[in-house]
Design goal:
This protein is an alpha+beta fold. The protein has two domains: 42 residues, no CATH class; 40 residues, no CATH class. 19% of the residues lie in helices and 7% in strands. It has one helix and two strands; from the N terminus they run αββ. Strands 1-2 form a two-stranded antiparallel ribbon.
């Protein structure tokens, strides 16, 4: 996980006790925790009519006017309307 710059980025984050038998377990937990926190850094809300998309799916945005937004996204929530 790559750190993202933000106003509190220089402050440490602790989650005790961290008494792992295997150091890899702690490293995996720390990496997963950082990724979870980073999901709060940037969120967007979209609407569309694409079938087959739902929570947990990945999709790639292409052709958007802002090139920095053309990338892969993870869907973390979905609402469905049937008319």
């Amino acid at each position: 996980a790559m750190p993202r710059p933000h106003t509190a980025g220089d402050y440490p984050l602790y989650d005790y006790p961290g008494t792992y038998v295997q150091s890899e377990d702690g490293e995996h937990y720390a990496r997963t925790r950082i990724e979870a926190l980073q999901t709060l850094h940037e969120q967007v809300e979209l609407a569309g009519n694409a079938r087959g998309l739902g929570s947990g799916h990945l999709f790639s945005l292409t052709g958007f006017s802002r090139q920095d937004q053309n990338r892969e996204y993870l869907i973390v929530g979905a609402r469905y309307h049937i008319d």
